[in-house]
Specification:
mainly alpha; elongated
Length: about 525
Amino acid sequence: MKGAIQWRRLLIGNFHLSGVSRWAVFGLSFLCAAIFVDLLMPSSRPLFFEAWTESAWDHQVAHIKMASEGIIRLKQNSLVSRATGLRIAAREAMHDNRSAKPFSKIGLQIAKMGQQEQPDNGFWPQMAAGFEVELGKNEDALQDWQSGADASTWQDFQATYLLSQFPQKDNVPSYVYAELLQLRSPAAFQFINQNAIKLWQKVYQKPNTQTAFRFNTLLNGYQMRKHAKSIRAMETGINLCSLILLPPNAVVPPGYHAMLVARLQFADAIRHQFPLNILSVDRMYRENDAEAALTSSTDIAAEQDRLSKTAAVSSCLPGAMLAAIPTVVILGLLALIFSLPHRQSEVNRKLRIGAFLLILAAVAAILVPLSAALTLMTAAVFAVESPRNDRKQKPADLGPLFRYTMVTFGIIWACISSAFFVLNSKPGLALLHISPIAPVYLVSGAYALILAALLVSACLWAFAQRIPTYYVFTKGAALVAASSLWTLLIATVILTPICAYENNHVRTNLHNMVANEPLYYLIK
């Protein structure tokens, strides 16, 4: 019976007025019912569970990641699988080691097969030309480079591959699209640009082939920029168009006036030898400048980072706040343990406090940073000391300042606990890029500092009001646990619909970025 009363006081924050107690119980029941309703709603239920459990989405993302890194091979012999194999071969071929040449041979075979199946796609001959440059076949590379210029479209199938496992975007968590965005590989674009520079260095001294190569490079870059589904591919296309305006040995790019003059001279040379019926050279460069200006005006890296972090937090914050409740229960049990010795002898009380301090020291030595551990152990010494002349009648309420201080500690405890579980969730580890050890180390140190502040506060109030320190610590720990519990429950009820809305909004934006990143920034 007495234990039930103590737990009841712990839950309602040690308030003794019957009216306040009834309202507290009613509020607690209402909050639990609201959370139960959120668990039943299809839009908010995944926010409590999906970020913590292995789902089909997580397995598919892991499969795509392993396939993109070459750990596993895709079974289907399709254009998508061949494009993925080309990216792997290009990444390995750019490494200056013994395995570069075998990968170049494999990549060339894959590119030729893709070119036969899809002759109008400039991606395949561009990749083939790059592998031929790596193998020393410069004449064949020039022919494939011209085939890429004659193509009518450009598609690297990367966005298609990333979205192939997620046809229904409304059912997919937002953090999945954020992970897919990070899996996009720039290896193919870097490979094409790198070998285009090598070709330009070889044909620059050959006037007979120089103009044709410059014209083909312009068309290759224009097609890549026009049909690119990622910012990196679009930038590579723009760089290719600007590449042939400069000598190969140019170290510092000239100013805008010099570049404009070079563009006009190049346009005149092209008009005489390769008249364009559809698009003029000037129009191609103006379109490149316009799209580069529209996309570079936005901080793309910052935008992606913001959306990814928002997806990570909104996908698991409600579940993290519920997962933090056991830490509050542990603090409440600590308050209950400290409340038991006051009916025992003084020796028994000090033995219990001494045992608690030993356990605290062992935990601090393992989990807590050294500075926080020393602070905690120094503050824990105060728990043994109490005023010599205690008041016979212990006050039930230690004053508004004491309540305010403990409630503040409780809110901080709730925030720290929630942040810890967010950082250790699946989207948190994948998108926030924090080591799993760091949150444990930092949060344990924060817990230690809160307990140290609680112990010091208990000693100060004990000597100020001439009451035992353990009694003040019991009251304080109970208030901290109660305020932390109320904070977590209220925040869960309020933030769950907000997280559900934000999760849906971020999911749409991230899906559009994965599907067509340049278009997302142009129509944003």
